[in-house]
Amino acid sequence: MTGLELRKPTQASRAGRPPRVDAKSIVDAAIAIGLSRVTIKEVAERLGVTAPALYRHVRNRDEIVKLAAIELALNRTQASGNGIDSHWSDVVRGCAHGMVELFVAEPQLICEVMNGTLGPDGEMDFVEQFLAAMAAQGFAPAESIRIHHAVAMLAIGAAVSATAMKSGYAGGLSHEESIRKALARRSRNALPLIRSALPTYLHIDPQQWRESLDALVASIAARRGETVPDTQGAGIAIIKAKPGKTSPAARKSARERTGKKRHQT
């Protein structure tokens, strides 16, 4: 399962037997609901149990969100650098697109990253896969780490912008409506430069971040004395991180860090 897929809710057991509840089923339910909409009540109802049953495994709603965020981060998509006719630029572009898609699909993950909730464990597993894909293309680990960091900063910024434009502003106004309303409150002589480019300001392309990605790829190629293929990422092969790809130690550490250890019923 990847972070972009919705898991099916756990089905209640047959009459006369209480539904099975454990950490995994709680996390599955939270992912299916959507991190930003998770509540104790919603998770309990989805699992067919009472709220007290959940408290035997998690402290509160925040812990559920943290555990679900870790699960999504550990299973996010990335690009394979070992495919036929693949190029290192495909790996870089695939990594960026995978991050943006995940963060846009689950904006709550951005908050978890900002708060340091996810920690290094899940990140290291993902970076290791990226380094391996880049090593197959002749990149040293240190250089690949710097590239991954640059891609991550670009992807998070792109996801924040896209999410903000999609969500609108306070009061339910769209991006365009909010700007026009704000300008109406100013004098006609105020903000002349913005007004001169108002059509562009009103209709920012949410995919504009791809230009920055292209520039990043071009700069990497220039340092290596190479020319980037004209495919523009058309050959990107996105693979899904499999459960076995993440080390058991990383998952255990992540759960311990969020206070997951609880006695089982």
Q: Can you put this structure into words, describing what you see?
A:
The chain is mainly alpha-helical and 265 residues long. The protein is 57% helix and 2% strand. It has helices at residues 23-33, 40-47, 51-54, 61-74, 88-105, 108-114, 119-135, 141-167, 175-184, 192-196, 198-202, 209-223, 248-257, and strands spanning 77-79, 238-240. Strands 1-2 form a two-stranded antiparallel ribbon. α7 packs antiparallel against α13 (248-257) and α8 runs antiparallel to α12.
Succession of helices and strands: HHHHEHHHHHHHHEH
Question: Shape from CA axes?
Answer: flat
Classify the beta-strand content into a percent band: under 5%
Supply Rg. 22 Å
Question: For this entry, what is the oligomeric state of its chains?
Answer: single chain
Give the terminus-to-terminus CA distance. Answer: 27 Å
Largest sheet: 2 strands, antiparallel
The largest sheet has its strands arranged as 1-2
